[in-house]
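so i finally got all the pieces together for this one. its two components total, 342 residues if u count the protein bits. some of the lines might not be protein, just check the labels. i wanna see the whole assembly predicted at once instead of chain by chain like last time, that was a mess tbh
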Amino acid sequence: MTAPQRRRRTSRQPDPPDAGEAARKEGETQNPERLFVIGGDADGERAALDLVTLIVARADPPASATPEQAALLRLCAAPLSVAELSAYLRLPFSVVTALLTDLLAAGLVQARAPIVRQTVADRNLLEAVMHGLQKL
Amino acid sequence: MDCKSSDTLPGPRTEDRLPHTAEAAVKIVIVGGFGVGKTTMVGSVSEIRPLTTEETMTQAGIGVDDDYGSASKTATTVAMDFGRISITDELVLYLFGTPGQERFWFLWNGLFEGALGAVVLVDTRRLEVSFDVMGRLEERGVPFVVAVNSFPDAPRHPVADLRAALDLPEEIPIVDCDVRRRASSRDVLLTLTRFLHSLAAKGALA
């Protein structure tokens, strides 16, 4: 088979110099790590929210709510992920997390934390996902 | 583009609302080079019409040519398509896939780190477009399976040859699929979930 040949990389180890050079062909930026999310670090405290953290409103929008806050609270009358809120509000993820940080502090929304991959994997969770997919 | 009446806020259709019992969500990321079918796969298994979220990233100006003269930072908007599958009344699975700009997703904090795993879609006509993304998953210890999207005019290779070309260890599943078909895309996700389960059984999840 005349296919290009890939070389496997290992977990959390820097590339050897030669492999690094090869990986950066095709005009890629040399140091993409210099990119960062706007406001992610410097802009004060943010609640730890994942794209798939489920948000549920705990109250109707108060009179003092900004239009964005009111729209967000109405959207999550039923549980909705931060990603879906970002999509429907047409706001970047980091802007939505900033809005949610204020709403969480005010007790107007509840955040249901996502299940993230951990060192000790949850086989029951994976079995639930398998059964759910089989029903599709 | 959008055709909504001015007095209606955008939001989920009634049938797209999650039940109040939805307690937790997990995510799987679909990666691969440009044009291999990631967005098609998200759309074929999602219970909602795929949505798009975005993030704005900045790039420090050191050594970067930009068009803004003295500007020290340039902003890049990274978009991601995603879909949703309700697993139970309590558990929801989100699938993320994106039209391109792969190198930026890895800077989206938490996208891969919190994901259960990833599907790497490959097109046998252009295997090499998936190389970099596989390497990045390996570096981060994100478990993945490889799904070969069967385009009609794509060459078909024995799995052993593909495994050698992709330099993948024996335990990583390589499966054929047609991402336009819901059942086929679902089977790829099942393959990934079974693989993750086998890793969990071995206690090998990083």
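Chain B has a mean pLDDT of 84.
Strands of chain B lie at 24-32, 51-60, 73-86, 91-97, 117-122, 144-149, 174-177.
anyway lmk what u think
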